[in-house]
Predict the structure.
Amino acid sequence: MEALEETEEVEQTPEDENSLNISDFLDDLEADVTVEEASVPSDVPGFDWSSIDTSHLPSSYKTNSRQEKELLQLADHFLEQYTHLCPDRKPLFVHPVNECGVQKFVSTTLRPTLLPFPELYYWSGCASFVCDYLIMEPLKCPITLPSSLYSPTTILKYQRGNCFDFSVLLCSLLIGAGYDAYCVQGYATLEMCSLDQTQEVCPLLRKPPEVPEEEDPNKYRIKYPLEPQSKFELQQKAKKEEEIEPGQEEEREEEEREEEVVTEVEKPRRDPLHGLRVHAWVLVLSGKRKVPETFFINPFTGNHHSTTDECFLGIESIWNHRNYWVNMQDCQQGCKDLSFDLSDSICWEIMFSESNEPSQLPTESPKKDTDDMEKVEIDMSFEMPLSWVARIQVSYREYENPFSQGKKVILYNKAKLEKWAAYANGDGLVERITVYADSDCTEEVEVKEWFKHREDLLYMREVNKQTQLITDYFRPGHPLLLKAHSYTSLEPETGHTVEYYHTARADGLWKCFESATEMTEYFVGREDFLHTRHIELGERDKKMHMAGIGSDANPRPIVQIKEYFHRNPEKPADEDIEERIFMVIDGIIQLTYHLEVHDTIASKVVFCRVTGREKREDEIFLSRENSVTYQPWSSEKHKNVLHLYNLLRELREEQKLLKLQVRDSEAEMLNILKVREDEEANIKLSVSMYNTAKRRQQHEAMV
């Protein structure tokens, strides 16, 4: 049903609205159509549908069977009653001509098909394929129905069509996949009809909805008072804010004016045809395929929409491959209040009775001359003939390369999305989104790229254009067990953060950060409860560096090693180390133990180097001068000198092992950088063994 036009800010009387100048309206319509046609992208300018070759099409495209002729007669009879009883309603889209100029009922143009691709078993995959494979063409007149509806096979062949062509193809795929889907004839906003998404946020950038925190059900829980604040200080602060210099106040007013101007520019312009623009989309009812809630699909974008979305302004009719329904509900509030219970004859008038029940469409009584209306039983039971459309077929090559122009570009609000077919780029790039700081898309802020079929298992890359920080993400299975790698340069010691699939590592390392002066490692699930290791590194010997000696022979000196441990419940707290510090250059070892629940001060042990004594290799010297202990909660055995001696000897051995582990970590990081540099210099794409065509091309390229 036609939705009401947008109301003017200035109040108008009904007489003024009825006396609108028709010529002005047509001038606006003509200008609007010109703007729309200029704004719609097209790879083949001025494509002429009348010049397509129809000689090879089957006979079902060129003629009607006896059953189809009966169907058209019944449809005409229904339309006669409809136009007589509802003269103010807009025409219904019932039997347009096809590509051969033959009238076909819209339900028979649907060809339910399940294509042999796993992604097309789900509505999201079907919607993505249709919106990517076809090129959008606007309606010749935005407020009138198209005069023709071509078959889905012809639309697939030429990869282009209007909103009705998109919807019929998408609905055919959805019904074939088992969904309760319907094509919808209705009205929508200018942005939806013209595929203008410059005012929308890119779906890839939308943040997930925040889950509200659950309130404590215990109403008797003690509520602690907030931190007290001085009222006098708050008053003084408010006075300072009010005492703003005149220059600052002018600057603030100017900034506010600029913000208002930007907001006005970003607002969509008022549409004089609001509520009149014809559009077609797809309705999916709940129930089948475990769909929990009824929703709309915009075929141009493939996006999911609620039935209360304000972009949909009204519905005239819907149809599937079995029947046709006319909406009898009021659409003054758009589609918000519509009921989609098709069995309700008050809300939806069905064209052909599905249970041999007479149609309840009201008609005038021929025996009475009064204006009263009464319901007359008309036998409209009819079995819908099979679709006249040939079988819908999509080859693997066509499915893998859906973009007729090589790529697809979509402009969003302060963002640009680019899509490519698989194997179109040598580096496996299939999708890129660029985020801008301004609406004119001149200053780049962030770039995200997605990849497919890479042998190095790289699938996503994020680039921060302001800090030049690059983050690569990898799928499981990389030879180095990489999960993510953040860097500004692949040169060593320039700041690298590497994340691993830690469940595949023996040491439980899940993250490592390295720079020129430090290295931090994070662990998960270790038996010794180690969770963090921090290493401070000094500068290399400048003389050796100037002499041209490599970094392997001139390593960075280890200044300090810190290790942090989780609580081990099997040990007493005064025997369970929480922090362990090895000051390698200063020769100091410091231990800090965990606290018990009732403790306030942690136990500590510090071993220092004896001043004035020559250090000997592997010598362990312990005295009261070089050991400091504070263990108030420990037993007497922990204060024994022999116990401290054995502890110091173990720590010295641990320090030697830690030095070797640090060197191994440095060598591992260097190896990662070398491997990543080689992978980026020689990018290889994997080809499935079932993709014979691609493997043949790859073999020919190698030969």
